[in-house]
Amino acid sequence: VLDTHLRTSAESALVKSAYAKRLWLLHGNDEDLQGDEAALIAANVQMLAMEDTRDIKAVLTFLATKGITRLLVEGGAQIHASFINAGLFDELLIYRAPSFLGEKARNVSGDFNIKKLSQRFDLEPIERSILGKDIMERYKRKKIKRFKVKKCSQD
Fold it and tell me: What distance lies between CA 41 and its chain's CA centroid?
């Protein structure tokens, strides 16, 4: 769990599952920690302080030193955009419900820093399944060949 400000409650279902499965909580190293670290430790949560949990490359490097080389990333728009912008994903699974939520709903995607068409990232569909009323779509990142354009001098 990435939780920069330590907002995860010791009473959450996720924390209560820490006795059955090992739960690591990576949090910031700052003064803005809001949660009860002692209660989380008592609930069997492995607390890991990092300088900046928003630095996704540093987080993944840290996890690799612990032997973790594969992740399932669940979260909101900000965490998804962080991984996508850093190019640190192999596959995307998108679950959709047949509902429109309106303009006040939270966006599923964050800022991908795409200003030009050439900056886009393309996906290749792998699988599509109907799960009850919902749809699951699985994509892998498509490799795009980038070509350097040389300027021609006009004599």
Answer: 24
Token pair for residue 127? Answer: 């699988």
Reported as a single tens digit per residue, the pLDDT across 104-113 is: 877 777 777 7
DSSP-derived 3-state class of residue 92: strand
Where residue 98 falls among pLDDT bands split at 50, 70, 90?
very high
Prediction pTM value = 0.70
Closest CA to 79 of 111, 49, 45, 51: 111
φ, ψ for residue 12, nearest 5 deg: -70, 155
Judging by beta carbons within 10 Å of its beta carbon (0-12, 13-18, 19+), is residue 44 exposed, middle or buried? middle
pLDDT, one tens digit per residue, over 37-78 is 888 888 889 888 888 888 888 889 988 998 888 888 888 788
Question: For the purposes of burial, counting CB atoms within 10 Å of the CB of 36, is it exposed (0-12), middle (13-18) or buried (19 or more)?
Answer: middle
